[in-house]
Amino acid sequence: MTRRIVAMLAVGLLVALTATMSSAAVEDPSGDVTPAEFGAMSAAQRGALYGSLRPTYIERLDNAMVMGRAFYVDDETIYLVNRGGQQSTVAIADISPFSLFIARTALMVDRNVYTSLEMLRRKLNIPEGDHDQAKGELDKILKSRPDLADVIEAIVDDPSDAIVHPDMGWIIREFADRSLALVEDRINDEVRLIESDHFIIITTWPKANDKGLKRSCEKLYDELIDQFKLDRGDVVWAGKLPVLCFWDETEFADFVVATMPMPPGKKAIDTDKLSKAGGFCMSYGGLTCVVLNRVQYDGASAAQARQWFYEVLTHETVHAFNKLYTSSVSLPDWLNEGIAEYMAGTLVTGSYASARWLRATRTVIARDINVNYNFEKFGGKLVDYGVCQSFVRYMVSSRSRRENFVEFYSLLKSGVSQEDAMQQAFGWTLDEFQRRWRAAAK
What we know:
With 442 residues, the protein is of the alpha+beta class. The chain has 3 domains: 23-157, SH3 type barrels (Roll), CATH 2.30.30; 188-322, Glutaredoxin (3-Layer(aba) Sandwich); 330-442. It has helices at residues 35-39, 43-52, 97-111, 113-124, 131-144, 149-157, 169-186, 210-227, 249-259, 271-274, 302-324, 333-347, 352-367, 373-376, 382-395, 399-413, 418-426, 430-441, and strands at 58-59, 65-66, 69-73, 77-81, 87-91, 192-195, 199-203, 241-245, 279-284, 287-292. Helix 8 (210-227) crosses helix 11, helix 11 (302-324) packs across helix 12 (333-347) and helix 12 packs across helix 13.
């Protein structure tokens, strides 16, 4: 039986797997430096503190950037230290929800033992990770926390299975509450927060759609559980996944502009282009959420607009699943998009995705188009979305292949290359996979 060690309910933290860990990283949150303690530090101590912390990009709601490294966060204020050892502060009420999440999680990475364990597990779980260094850090944690012996032993024995989730559920909740308050204050005062078992949904859609939104999200969650043969008790994303649904194009664009942290030197957001987007799945600083737009195309009925919305909801939420499940290792783009298209085409009746794969497959076969470039770099055209969905459909076209596909997916999430994962799961090279797919498509 699958052994899963869930230290605390939370979302899987998406952090750099090769980050260098220090003994300070195993301290409990109570070991944070308070503002009063900071004031009593020498210049050398402040410099050492600065060097031990992660860079924190904080965007104010007026789009100004606050630079520094967060060393303490309370209910009202974020305290930062700069390279010269000076302290600065910013009020939580004045910053974007994303920036608050980033500041909270930056401190959690540096101060929480369970976050450290999860980082080290992920480092052991990828072939290119520094395994000796990770095991050395686990030994240090064991000496200071012998009560975690069983957890550490499980991580060393099988890092792919001994998942440790740091306690971050309350930070996700704080992000949702802050996002709700921002939308209510600046964009639409009729916004609501509704919840299902696995989702926090912030919506400006008419209230009559609330039950449908919750039902659609949970149906998708159930389908993902079934598709990947997971146990109902498995943690896909502990806590709840934030989904923001906007009824009006300008609401969508206004929210993105008001909340997205923009590091120095990054190009400003094109709001006209943005307002036409269907939505996106965003991972930033450890937070994964889905932000959706209601795009009303010329000539489209209300029913068609609603269908398109649910198709985008399915597509982007599958991206969130792919990002969060098991590890932060990213899937190859062709597979990430292929799975998202496949699930949208399967779950949303009459969706564009349900026809796109067949049309793309027929075109590629009839014209003998080489689409192998997607394995190196996803093409991004409609035909590429359709073809990559067709790849996935072929890989799950029978019970035995479906089991091979689940193994293929798991190998990729553990850091195995797509070539090796394909060989281990299916017994094929990528070229052989292409030949088999083409033969079946004819």
